[in-house]
UniProtKB/TrEMBL annotation, chains A, B:
Sequence ranges assigned to domain HTH crp-type in this UniProt record: 145-219
Organism, as annotated: Metarhizobium album
GO process annotations (BP): regulation of DNA-templated transcription
InterPro entries: cNMP-bd_dom, cNMP-bd_dom_sf, HTH_CRP, RmlC-like_jellyroll, WH-like_DNA-bd_sf, WH_DNA-bd_sf
CDD domains attached to this UniProt entry: CAP_ED (cd00038)
Keywords in alphabetical order: DNA-binding, Transcription, Transcription regulation
Name of the protein in question: Crp/Fnr family transcriptional regulator
GO MF annotation terms: DNA binding
Domain called Cyclic nucleotide-binding: residue spans: 33-113
Statement: the UniProt record of this protein carries the keyword Transcription: yes
Pfam families listed in its UniProt record: cNMP_binding, HTH_Crp_2
Regions annotated as coiled coil: none
DNA sequence: CGTGTCGTTGACAGGGTTCAAAGCACGTGG
DNA sequence: CCACGTGCTTTGAACCCTGTCAACGACACG
């Protein structure tokens, strides 16, 4: 189950056997969350960081008028709040968008890793930096891409991220997200999401049914999105 | 000159004398960049990380049609590309918005810090995580705030960040940024930036002249912006 | 005094929001 | 087996926020 994290790390750099053991020793208890439940509450001070094993989760901020903005989506193999180990207090919440299965890594043990294993420390640092890269890409999409490109870009991102943890079957992946949630991701209205999806569908760029996304022509979708996967930093490097 | 970085760190956690020495030993040569010059080129593989001593810089992405989106602003005391130490390749550029004065920290030395000084490593990690927090806040502002609130939020952020490095005089700070650049920050048109500024000015929330921003009533501006400085993580904590 | 940069303004088009209602799939209970 | 409720998607219409275009003014500089 923890393999998705290992594979997330291995994609970016080799792990020694002791590294891998240290990763496995990190986790204590598991948890399950129902769709709609908060995994981490805004303002809280977690003592564990949460590895998502299965499910779809999101970091989000709420505004006073009830508007919600999602700032990143998390899939299996992602730490949803590794940054809290250093930041201490959550400046946003993390919600389970579908039923989620998680593992908890006590900050005490993460602390030990940073004291004893510099390489693994840098690898964990890396994971949080990739979150940052994704943030920047989203900012760019929200500010300067037309909505079709934004949507296409998001789909490409999820395709590559699911592929990295081996969850692509054919040109298809499970992506059980409602249009209302998608609207909170993209910062637009649900109506607009719906109409944009219809255009992408009628252009033959996307088939989206029963919580599954199929990409008939990845090349075409990437062109529309001006997608460059560099920002996901899948290259294996000595870090 | 390097004091702004020290103060940035000290705001967040105590530094021991050896920590501080290690910080000072990190830097090698200085550089100067003219306004408009790239400090770091997108796609490059820096071997140094750049500390901004003085000036205003920005991380940015360009789209094919020439549109630009700025993803974060940097002021004195910020590392503009500390993340490149771990990410290796730049997925965006960094540009000098005004004349900039910088110091270079060789990655070789940063590597040594991560091998020898776990606490300082976590402090540097922290700096990159705060960049991430700022990204999330910007995403929220772009997606779900009305433009007045977005602008107010940005001004509040810069006010708090300048204050942390002691660059607030009275209720005033130097912020020599054109409206066109501001448009690339907020992801809107220059015309719209101009009209929004006029509203804020006529509401008495902002005085902006000769590259200086004055905030007559910080409380009122924060209320409009729904500003909560938590995300800048100025609290001193044991990290 | 000409040139260039930046800020300001007005008119107009259109992209995107809001509101409201209808359609659809699915599970539940009678 | 059907009626009904629920959550999600789809549609249409009115409205307005925001972008584009184009021009002008203010100012610094050589």
């Amino acid at each position: 189950m923890i393999e998705s994290l290992i594979s997330n790390l291995r994609t970016r750099d080799a792990l020694t056997a002791p590294d891998e053991d240290a990763v496995r020793d990190l986790f204590q208890h598991e948890n399950r969350f129902r769709a709609g439940e908060d995994i981490v509450v805004q303002g809280s001070r977690p003592v564990n960081s949460t590895l998502l094993l299965e499910g779809l989760a999101a970091r989000y901020r709420l505004l006073e008028d009830g508007k919600r903005q999602i700032t990143v989506l998390h899939i299996g193999g992602d730490f949803v709040d590794l940054h809290a180990f250093i930041l201490k207090q959550m400046d946003h919440g993390v919600i389970a968008l579908t039923d989620c299965h998680t593992l908890a890594a006590p900050h005490r043990r993460l602390q030990a890793v940073t004291e004893e294993n510099p390489h693994l420390t840098r690898m964990f640092w890396l994971l949080t930096l990739i979150d940052g890269s994704i943030h920047r890409e989203w900012i760019t999409a929200m500010g300067r891409r037309e909505i079709k490109g934004h949507m296409a870009h998001l789909i490409c991102e999820m395709f590559y991220r699911y592929r990295a943890v081996d969850l692509i079957e054919g040109q298809t992946f499970r992506f059980p997200i409602t249009q209302a949630i998608l609207a909170d991701v993209m910062g637009v209205s649900t109506v607009h999401v719906n109409k944009t999806l219809q255009i992408l569908r009628s252009d033959g760029l996307l088939i989206w049914k029963d919580g599954r996304v199929q990409i008939p022509d990845l090349q075409a979708l990437e062109t529309l999105a001006e997608f460059d996967p560099l920002y996901l930093h899948f290259q294996s490097e000595s870090r």
